[in-house]
Amino acid sequence: MNLHLRPDALAEWTAAVFETCDVPAEQAAEAAAMLVRSELRGYRTHGMTRLASYVDRLQSNAFNPRPKMTSRSFPGGIVLDADGAMGHVAGPHAVRLGLEALETSASVLIVLQSCAHLGALGIHTLLAAEGGAFSMMGQHTPPALAMEGFSGGAIGHNPIAFGCPVPGEAPIVFDVACSVAARGHILLAARENKPIPEGWALDAEGRPTTDANRALDGFLVPMGGHKGIGIAMMVECLAGALTATAATAPTPHVKRGDAMQGAFLWLVKPDSFNGQQAFSDYMRKWTQIYLVAGGEDARLPGNRGDAMERAGRKQGIALPAPIIHELQSLGERLRIRFPD
Prior knowledge:
Elements: E1 2-5, H1 7-20, H2 25-40, H3 51-59, E2 70-74, E3 77-85, H4 87-101, E4 107-115, H5 121-130, E5 134-139, E6 160-164, E7 172-176, H6 183-191, E8 201-202, E9 208-209, H7 212-216, E10 219-220, H8 226-241, H9 254-259, E11 263-268, H10 276-294, H11 303-315, E12 317-320, H12 321-334
Parallel strand pairs: 3-4
Antiparallel strand pairs: 1-12, 2-3, 4-11, 5-6, 5-11, 6-7, 8-9, 8-10
Helix pairs in contact: 1-2, 2-4, 4-5
Keywords: Oxidoreductase
Organism: Paraburkholderia caffeinitolerans
Pfam families: Ldh_2
């Protein structure tokens, strides 16, 4: 049974949890809002189920609770050193930097160094779209993808997302990992002691498996076979190679180094090209053609999340009982009473 909570109460409680980990109040509130919004929009694997693990990483200093983020800009680009910040702090900061850069430029590519897990990338590209920009974002991960028969992980499952404003409508938001299924879905299945569908994963010997626990010890299967591997390679070039620092540089914190994942965020100002009117007219036309052709069940990426968020803010946010119990236990451990 799913239980419902007021989103604002859940966000306040989550912010208080982050503050117990020495996260400054303003950053704690922003990270909490991003996490709750992820849950509201249906990103179950990247919503409240991640909170306990983020707390563990903050408390162990694998994530930096008090980052001093710095950036350097040059024509067309920004390098953001997130200083080990949580992704839900670094991501919105990168979006703000990008939108500011678009005031004087048609596009900007931001690379994020020393950044923790960004969560659902679509939440960040949504922010950019709400700011009027087209955006694309990717984050590289440790090697997790493999084809059947591989002896080990070959490349990260490297999630990628894009967002685009649609005049008069909710923004388009498309968010996928380069694997058939995100690892978070397998984590949920393992926690709920459920099997996973065929074609999602391989075990440690490179053999197909439907056992979630064996899958966690093995590898993810790329979406579309070699096509998914190719997209993962693109993300690796942008989110890995462009964020790389000298191999000889000392690692200031071993645990933090293991937890950091480079990322890129590309923003484009639509009206810099053929003007806002032409862009708006074209977006209206092609989206209508798509929706009419698809019939009554057709929808654009992001429409479902928008509807879920609107409903959740009115009716309350629905959380499964196991997640509620986990959060209640976390609250008891931190001496922060979970909201009714």
